[in-house]
Amino acid sequence: MTPDGSARAPQILTALWESASPGPFDEIVDVRSPGEFADDHLPGAVNLPVLSDDERAEVGTIHRREGSFAAARIGAAYISMNIGTHLAGHFSTKGKDFKPLIYCWRGGQRSASIALVLARIGWRTTVLAGGYKTYRAHVLCGLDTAPPRFEYRVVTGATGTGKTRLLNAMAARGAQVLDLEALARHRGSVLGGSGPQPSQKRFDSLLLAAFDRFDPQAPVWVEAESNRIGDVYLPAALWAAMRSAGGIEIRMPIDERVRHLVEAYANLFADPVDLKEKLTRLTPKYGARQIAEWCLSVDACEWNQLAVSLLTIHYDAAYAASTERYFPCVTEAVDLPDATAEAVGALVEKLARHFRTLEASTAVIEP
Fold first, then answer.
1. Rounded to whole angstroms, how far apart are CA atoms 266 and 269?
2. CATH of the domain spanning 146-357
3. Which residues are catalytic?
């Protein structure tokens, strides 16, 4: 209620605040269905659906078969019931000064329904105009404008040279690292899947959130990737910036690469059926005979032999071609004897000294 005793009406937010700044709300509430929320949502949002996935589907079916009035009637019944559940549960501990931001798909009936109830209770309630679609437009705009603001240092290197381990060590030391494979939940190759990937929309949101944490005055280290990582794509602005960036190439003896690869892909080797299924995807490129040889190595648990064969036949050739084509500005190289924590840590220290004093981007790092 307002000071004069009249009921409050929900406020309307027409534009999002700066992503790097704290939001002016106590809580961001996504009232879409769980499936919509899982596909993507505003950072920090909680999901309090006014229609479940099944209820939303049912309302849509009724709308197509019987028209808008019948759909609105059943939809209102479900929404009222679910709002009551949230009031008795999630909202029961909120104080009188609680300030929520509410949104649905496009700022329509779902957000308006719950926002009206919350405002009538007395909470200073705001609805995001345009709902999730407004946020999605904000993300796409941000992914056009944010990447060019940063200087990038690309880490290239053949498969198994410990690039991810190096970047993790650099991040632990305080460097700005954009871990694209972690955001995409994929290692960027046919064998690189490690569970369900985020949707393209979710990946975009996670990527923009990463940029929001970076300082434009400091470089961003990133592993060389193609513009597609599994099923998600890099924004064009980031891909262009990476292709024109300098950086370093990591080189390592093949026996150490094999050792590191077998260790890093232990979870993949633990599931031979899934591994062989992944290998069969390479049949159009290498033929059934080569795939059969690799599958025999899997059956015999000859992991080192399999790793050597995959590196020499598949990965190294693909790496050489893609690096030459996409990252021609990476002209420095460093030899890493192995991927142990000690060797990686020593390289991190060497890189820190080198890039503090580097005069010419074409110099080779001294051993």
1. 5
2. 3.40.50
3. 104
